[in-house]
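Inverse folding, one chain.
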């Protein structure tokens, strides 16, 4: 088999940038060939961090792992993992494989603990991340116009929040957009008015974390109103399905309510999975199956033996091997329980398919920054219960 990675390098191309501009072509590869290409990207990334990051190299040497240890896809499980909790530690700067002065962007995510996870990105990592996110958006949404109703705050209000940053990138593909959460306040009447104003002018997309879209639908139910979105509209969610109270939002119920009250088909409801510490984006296809970015590899581990992978279809702890990460090692042990799913006949794409299950029961917190947004909105509504524009308290 021709070594695609080596061929691109010999011809003077950056293999990662080629991959980022060839998402459809990667998904069309046979699984074995795609895995071999990803392995080359990951080995190259591992070699870089091993050479430039003393903190990471010590961890590798303690396990007797060097770049020569990674030769085949089966060897990827040997790569030492960085627990995601380290991104929250006071010593998170030790993760840097580049100088602190080269950091262009800091992004943050804060769950129920209130301690922010800080992800630092240099120029190369930002380049890769931007290209990767937009490539996945185009692959799964094909959006190039329309209006976005953002049921979340703007990046102007929370510039460092990773979830908002990722969602805001969709706005660059639209004709217009509005952010409907301002100063921790969401007024569903205003959101409905904006959707009606765009009617017959744009394809209207509703974008935000599930719990705020759920609030909007609760308002429509309580006031006996329904919206008929457009045939090319999407309802796009990012940010987890567990509220700050611990209550789960049912994906099945959410889909049914979107279909009834927003007038969309099930294929138009798309959820995404992403982490601020990684450059991965996992997006639902038209069948509701989540596809992992084809240039990132997911390894699902036995929580009791983290050096062992579980079989396809079994639940385990997610490890992410992200070759797009230059600033810090992209070999992250998350606190998420997931399953990798076998390929179904109705899907033409190769690569990995994900089912998110839950956070580890022993995790110190749950949720991402969306959880704190939920808590802030709920607290403000409670304070203004006798004088509010929103007649709906959270379900």
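Residues assigned per position:
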């Amino acid at each position: 088999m021709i070594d695609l990675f080596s061929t691109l390098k010999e011809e003077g191309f950056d293999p990662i940038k080629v991959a980022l501009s060839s998402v459809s072509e990667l998904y069309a590869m046979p699984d074995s060939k795609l895995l071999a290409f990803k392995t080359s990207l990951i080995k190259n990334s591992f070699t870089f961090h091993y050479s430039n990051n003393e903190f990471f190299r010590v961890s590798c040497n303690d396990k007797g792992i060097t770049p020569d240890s990674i030769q085949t896809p089966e060897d990827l499980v040997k790569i030492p993992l960085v627990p995601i909790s380290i991104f929250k530690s006071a010593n998170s700067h030790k993760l840097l494989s580049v100088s602190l002065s080269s950091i262009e962007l800091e992004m943050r995510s804060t769950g129920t603990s209130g301690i922010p996870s800080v992800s630092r990105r240099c120029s190369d990592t930002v380049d890769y991340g931007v290209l990767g996110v937009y490539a996945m958006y185009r692959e799964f949404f094909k959006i190039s116009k329309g209006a976005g109703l953002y049921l979340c705050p703007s990046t102007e209000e929370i510039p460092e929040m990773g979830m908002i940053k990722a969602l805001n990138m969709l706005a660059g593909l639209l004709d217009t957009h509005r952010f409907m959460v301002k100063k921790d306040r969401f007024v569903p009447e205003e959101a409905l008015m904006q959707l009606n104003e765009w009617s017959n002018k744009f394809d209207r997309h509703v974008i935000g974390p599930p719990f705020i879209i759920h609030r909007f639908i609760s308002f429509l139910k309580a006031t006996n109103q329904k919206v008929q979105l457009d045939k090319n509209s999407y309802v796009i969610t990012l940010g987890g399905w567990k509220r700050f109270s611990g209550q789960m939002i049912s994906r099945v119920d959410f889909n049914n309510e979107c279909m009834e009250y927003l007038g969309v088909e099930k294929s138009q409801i798309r959820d995404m999975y992403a982490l601020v510490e990684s450059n991965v984006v996992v997006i639902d296809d038209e069948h509701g199956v989540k596809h992992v970015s084809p240039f990132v590899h997911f390894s699902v581990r036995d929580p009791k033996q983290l050096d062992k992978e579980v079989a396809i279809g079994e639940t385990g702890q997610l490890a992410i091997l992200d070759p797009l990460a230059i600033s810090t090692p992209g070999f992250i042990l998350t606190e998420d329980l997931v399953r990798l799913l076998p390929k179904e006949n109705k899907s033409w794409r190769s690569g990995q398919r994900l089912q998110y299950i839950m956070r580890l029961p022993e995790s110190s917190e749950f949720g991402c920054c969306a959880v704190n947004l939920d808590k802030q909105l709920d607290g403000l509504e409670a304070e203004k219960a006798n004088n509010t524009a929103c007649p709906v308290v959270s379900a």
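The CA atoms of residues 143 and 173 lie 6 Å apart. The longest strand covers residues 331-341.
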